Model the fold of this input.
Amino acid sequence: MPTTSNRGMQIGASPIRSLLPYARQAKNDGVHIYHLNIGQPDIETPLAARRYLAADDEPIIGYGPSEGLPELRTAIADYYQKFDGGLTSEDVLVTTGASEAILFTMMSCLDHGSQVIIPEPFYANYIGFSAMSGVDIVPITSTIDTQFTLPTIEEFEQIITDKTKAIFLCNPGNPTGQLYDKAQLQALSDLVKKYDLFLIVDEVYKEFVYDGEFTSVLSLPQIEDHVIVIDSISKVFSACGARVGCLITKNAAVKSSVLKYAQLRLCPPFHGQKLALACYAGTDHYIQSAIQTYQKRREILFNALSEIEGVTCYKPKAAFYNIAALPVDDAEDFCRWLLTDFRVNKSTLMLAPANGFYFNKSLGKSEVRIAYILNKEDLTIAIDILSKALIAYKEK
Amino acid sequence: MPTTSNRGMQIGASPIRSLLPYARQAKNDGVHIYHLNIGQPDIETPLAARRYLAADDEPIIGYGPSEGLPELRTAIADYYQKFDGGLTSEDVLVTTGASEAILFTMMSCLDHGSQVIIPEPFYANYIGFSAMSGVDIVPITSTIDTQFTLPTIEEFEQIITDKTKAIFLCNPGNPTGQLYDKAQLQALSDLVKKYDLFLIVDEVYKEFVYDGEFTSVLSLPQIEDHVIVIDSISKVFSACGARVGCLITKNAAVKSSVLKYAQLRLCPPFHGQKLALACYAGTDHYIQSAIQTYQKRREILFNALSEIEGVTCYKPKAAFYNIAALPVDDAEDFCRWLLTDFRVNKSTLMLAPANGFYFNKSLGKSEVRIAYILNKEDLTIAIDILSKALIAYKEK
Done:
């Protein structure tokens, strides 16, 4: 039998999804699971957009442009005006989810053995996309004690080598809910200019900000050629399955390189793009309502977590995630045990062990990521289950 | 300004799309272009499937399973019964178009510097996906003089080295319209067993067979662990924009590796999968009608090409492509000139220079690929334009 590739064997399985078999078994046993483990919003996709798509009967679902539908590129450029993006449609390339935008960015900007600096903990799939493109991640650690504040510019500067090609941020942060402010981004902007690096920012959660103000790196002066922004409709419009994201840059060489990768896969999905177009057409009210919903849940979650003995937590400024340090040695074992053994009224909950979001595998062992994507009643019940579970787990 | 990656600079632009700026200019000048250059069918996507999708109002367009919707995996496994696939849903992983299935296959089965043998001319994007995954293509040449018959087993065997990990076929062939028969595939099957190689077959055009019978490599005995099949709904159901394909294998290690890449990109597009599900639900009549349509066009194209002086052509057995050798030294120049200079009644035509489908860049210089994806009236006019153009080009 021929053997599979070494890289295929080495690439890690998704940390969030590794608990899935246990969750499936629990469901088969009739247990209700409160899912706090995944960034799948429970808010409905905009009804107007779904209706628009249903009414749009194109007789041939044909290839579109590799760059994405022109009207969608324009809509995204226009949308970014509220963040002072200063974009034209030519600066926007539509991708099959933010996932593809990350892969295209790695492929286009970095070579095998190039280094990219990423503050950890970070979205775990960055590791897989780096592996796929042979890029080396150099993590720079932030910790729960400082609420995952961005490390200092000096700390970044210390780890820059001649192989460093980029600094990669997620702002607002998944899994931390941290928000980087304008001064911090400006300082990073000076740094990338000094060392001639790319500044890649995943801004997928930019709408969901509760304390402070979001600054897009696209609005910073005089670093146009350094900046690549990754965005998506998945979270803002609760349309994760549509698979529509985008890669934004004003750097002509990057555009040209990315386009070649885009042509290889022919085009982004037709229906998702049509849905996206309708989402961008008029959804201020929808977004405001979503922000209010998440903000209320943030309070509920923070208050409930604060009352559990031994739990270290903080109030996240943005996104819909929160990391909590639990009074357990091995959060992954605890999360598995929740699925296999612990029940309250035939229910349990599923959390994401935070260790998977750290590059350094000795970190975050007692931490979990909690996504507040349940309605407030369910969220309250879920945290009550967590509270009871911690006591039972300790006594075990 | 930071420089883009070397690999990004080296990766070739799409050969089919390189003429697009000239086509765009011609259109802006009011010229009608008969497109014979691209594999975009002009047949409508099944109406029943479009209606099914429009009626399916899911309130949250959420992430689906990374492997694809379970019911779609089952539908694809069932569909392959007519080709004696012998599949279960577990053997099918849904991808974002055949494009992604090709990339996942390369990533999962081959390492950097591994070699894959591919009969040329072949679908040009195989080059890009190989480059993306650092795999070396070793072409084995077939020629128009033999109607692109598969090279002999001895010729394959001669170029196998210790770096060879796979043989990759497109059957039926894009761009050749060639069909490999059961005996040829059986002989290749013996070869891959002898050298412990993967046998990867792109079967995207399998429904469109006019002479002879299609054999899926999935039906061959005792090579289950060697075989990976790539398929798509794009051509069969005229749904290129839906971006739904699949990767089929019974090899457990390949499945496990591919799943990790699939989890990285989260899931295939929701709407395309729903459309695909409805396509597979009941479309025998649709497919039969499409086959008849292409078969008639094949006759028209072959008869018309045969009458043009200096053109070498053949009657393709399958798919909807044909390569023709034209009496010109540089078909790419000729194709460009058609777009920039030549008009008949304010119309011209667009062809794909076949050189882009050869790995060896000295081959196919006078050849073009013609896709018969126009109705018979338009096809007749288009070939008449070709005939007149060849005379004018010669006199130029």
Notes: The mean pLDDT of chain B is 96. Chain B touches chain A through 85 residues (CB under 8 Å). The first helix of chain B runs from residue 6 to 10.
